[in-house]
Fold this protein.
Amino acid sequence: MIMSEQTQNQQQRPYQPAMEDEIDLRELFVRVRQRKWWVTGITVLSVLLAVTYLLIARPVYRAELFLMPPSISDLAALNLDTTYLIHSLTTEEVYNQLLGQLRSKKNLMLYYDKAELDELYRTSEDQTSNDVLEKFTDAIVLHIPKKKDNLVFTSISLEGPSSEQVASHLNAYTDYVISIFIKQLVADLYSLRDQKIELLEHEIKSKREIAYIQRQDGITRLEEALAIANAVGISEIGAKDKYIISDQSINMMNLDELYLRGSKALAAEIKVLKARVSDDPFIDQVRLLQEELETLRAIKADSSTIAPVHIDRQAIVPEKPERPKKFLVLVISILLGGMLGLFVVLAVPVNEEKPLA
């Protein structure tokens, strides 16, 4: 009976958790206050490490150059429209090709060797030339945003340890690629022009060869007619024969009765044909072909008038390094130092503290 009453009393009492399971915030606050110098010391140590890093870290500067597409007039020297040569380049096409040239590994390597950038980007003696070259190619970045109003505003940036050199080399590299690209555009135009010239020269040559063969065939026919005229004794065209011949509306060279013209006329024509120096005046359209040939030969593209891109703003010397950001590093070091100090203060039990002497 007594046991049942005790059991009933225990069931009616509310559950009370043990005091040792509760988090005593007051105790934690007291512990932090007693060990505030721990937090301060660890924070100061973190800041000192950050300051040491900032003193020994190699600063990285970033220069940026802005580009815009060319106008139609900038490509006028390259766009041609003649009978035998049509060469048309759009501003977007040329601009995209130039951006590809700026990203070209070949151009980056050529400029790297030309400007002798090994010393600038080498951070240790253990690095190979390929490693340093790869570091340079990674340091130059082309930023292409989304298209707006059919114009693409592009920027190209270069990072490096020297503020003056990154700006100077970025401008020099862009100019270097532009000059190479202009030479390529002109070379492509001249290559196409030379192909058309070769085709025209071949066409004119073929017409001349055919005209020469036709002239020799005509001479052969005239010589045969002369032989017939001499055989039948016709030296000149008689009055009746003149009427018959003049009444014909077709070329006498195609007539079987060519001998009727008489031996004198035939012999004179043969002599003239054999003495002919050039058949050009008698070749259909050869003068038009020669005129077009001279037009193509006169094509010259002035490189100074060609601009495949507009430089909206040259790279300027950056005033502050891109990395490391000193203020941010110090703030992070303070936060991390404080957090680490609090963790140490709370993690070390009170009974493990060494008594002060």
In short: The chain has a mean pLDDT of 84.
